[in-house]
Amino acid sequence: MPHRRRSEIERLYRAEYPSAIELSMRFAILAVGSAILYLYTGWTSALLWLPIYFALHLLHWRFLKTHVDSSDPGDLNVAALLYLVIMASFLWMPVCMALVDDPPLQFSAVALMIATLVFLIWRGDTQPLLVMGKTALVAAAAVLITAHHMANVADVWVAGAMALSGAAAVTYFHIAQIAVRNRIKFSRRAAIHQAEAQKLEAIGRISSGIAHDFNNLLTAIRGNLELARMVATRQDREDLLVEAQLAADRAADLVRHLLSYARTARITPELVDLQSLTDEIQMLSDDLIPASTPLSVMRPSSSLHLVTDQAQLVTALLALILNAAEAQESRPGTPVTLSIADSLHMSPQEMLNGRILPAGRYVQFTVRDSGPGIPASVLPHVAEPFFTTKPPGTGSGMGLAMVSGFAEQSGGGIVIETAPSGTAVHLYLPPDSPAARGSGAATGRQLAQAAEKAHKARVLPH
Q: Distance (Å, rounded) from C-alpha 134 to C-alpha 436?
């Protein structure tokens, strides 16, 4: 319940104050309208209309802004009451205009009332106090206008028709609100059920993948250890122990990938020179990707540095490069490209997992291939752990999950652009790591280990 109330207050804020531009336009139009109304009628109330409306909105905005995280049900009721007061402060002027026997004013009043009714329905309020309050205010306005004009009508049938029309308008307005409210509540329930189903499916896939991979690794470890007891020569025993150690290392890598996906792996930040990093990536990739698929590196135009975990960054980039090379195996001679550049996003970007990457400055790593692209049915799942389209035994499905986890833990994210002519994976990292700054650089041994780990993580499904 507290979470639902917080969500409702957040929704009220977004519904009424979606953007500074929209709000400025709203008040500008109202200012022009009140000025024209004053010049046409000479009403002092026309000049008071805007400051009263603005003051109430300022109070409402301040309340929502300071209580957006509140879980108190009373705060939600106060927010609703404040909005109903704002609505009343707006509607009283169209009502006054409709009560005057002046066709231009009556036409303007009808236009304002219709626009207000459409906006109130579009808001999609689900709180009962707001739904009933809006209906009560609209009904009060309809009663005042209808009663005023009925007093000037002698024919009882015409007066009855006018009353019936007003009642019908209020009734259908309320029915429309209830229909929108029910549709929104149904959509929310459906979204919750879908999310739960997807969560259970993901948990099942992860559990199955972990059980399968660990069972294979434990079988290798136990088998080699048992054989080590049985062999006679020391060299054979050492060879078997080496195989057991390699299986244990692969198990440790699997755990590390899972921690990275869960964004709980330890990040060791250090200052990384991206010019030097590209040289290391070029050297390591030469030993990992086929000679028929060269790597073309587009280095940053100027000296560019980044504070991040260099070993994990190398692992992530090599995993993306290896999978890009696999995606275009049918096109030998076509290079995979890696480009690195500063990127300034003026607007938020939707990431691979549906989360939003906030606007800001990032270093952009792009790995591009010329493969057949990722099918639309596969794309939403490529960052899920243990999801792979490769044949059994050729991929564990942890590559992009690990890269995505590392990126988000570092304060960045992944965006994928794919088409039948190829796929581009954009890895965005902020220049400064969220973790504490470190110093130094990864050693050659660390980079070699990163290359080996990346080789094991070649699982990006295309």
A: 52
**Residues 206-245: tens digit of each pLDDT:** 555 566 666 677 788 888 888 888 887 888 888 888 888 8
Give the separation between CA 451 and CA 285, rounded to whole angstroms.
Answer: 8
**Do the beta carbons of residue 340 and residue 376 sit within 8 Å?**
no
Confidence of residue 136 (pLDDT cuts 50, 70, 90): very high
Residue listed under structure tokens 């303007």: 108
Dist CA 388 CA 404 (whole Å): 15
| Prediction pTM value | 0.50
Instruction: Tally Cβ neighbours within 10 Å of residue 54.
Output: 14
CB hemisphere CA count around 232 (13 angstroms): 0
pLDDT of residue 374: 85
- Report angle CA 114, 142, 116 to the nearest 5 degrees: 25
Specify which of 65-69, 157-161, 184-188, 450-454 reaches the highest per-range mean pLDDT.
157-161
Classified as helix, coil or strand, 210 is helix
Per the CB < 8 A criterion, the answer to whether 221 and 247 are in contact is yes
Calpha distance 323→458 (Å, rounded)? 6
SS (H, E, C) 326-366: HHCCCCCCCCEEEEEEEEEECCCEECCCCCEECCEEEEEEE
Opening angle at CA 219, ends 315 and 406, nearest 5: 20
Which token pair is 400?
Answer: 């992009």
CB 397 within 8 A of CB 231: no
> Do 56 and 82 meet the contact criterion of CB atoms below 8 Å apart?
yes
Residue 144's SS3 state is: helix
**Burial (CB count <10 Å: 0-12, 13-18, 19+), residue 41:** middle
